[in-house]
Design goal:
6 strands, 4 helices, alpha+beta, 3-stranded antiparallel β-sheet, single chain, about 120 residues
Length: about 120
Amino acid sequence: MEVLICLALHAGEVMAREQLLREVWHDTFVTPDSLKRCVSLLRKAFTDDAGHPRIIETIPKRGYRLAAPVIFDDWRKSEAKIPLTLLFQQFLMAGRLPITVQPKATQDGDADLSTQLDG
C-alpha cells in the first residue's frame, strides 16, 4: 500500500525506481524486484494490465507513474510533508486510505468504476 500512496502523492509524475525504494523502504535493503512485485500486486488488485495500463504505467528505464486521476478525500496534499511511514500508519489506524483512484477509460471507451481504498 505504501507504494500506492507514494505514487498517489506524485500522481501523473514519473517516479524513479530508486526514489520509490528510498521513500517506501527508507534504510532497509530491498532489491528492485520487491518494488516490481508490489506494482504487480497493485495491478492485480486494480485489474490493470501492464500492456495497456489504466492505473500504473511502467516508464521503461525510469520508473512508474500513476496514470489514473486521484482524489484526496478529506485530506490536504500539504500533509504530504509528514513522513510516509507515519502517514501510512495514520491511514491504517483510521481504517481506510483517504484517496480514490479513478481508472482511465478502457480502449473501448468504457471507464471502470472508481476504486475507493478502504481498509
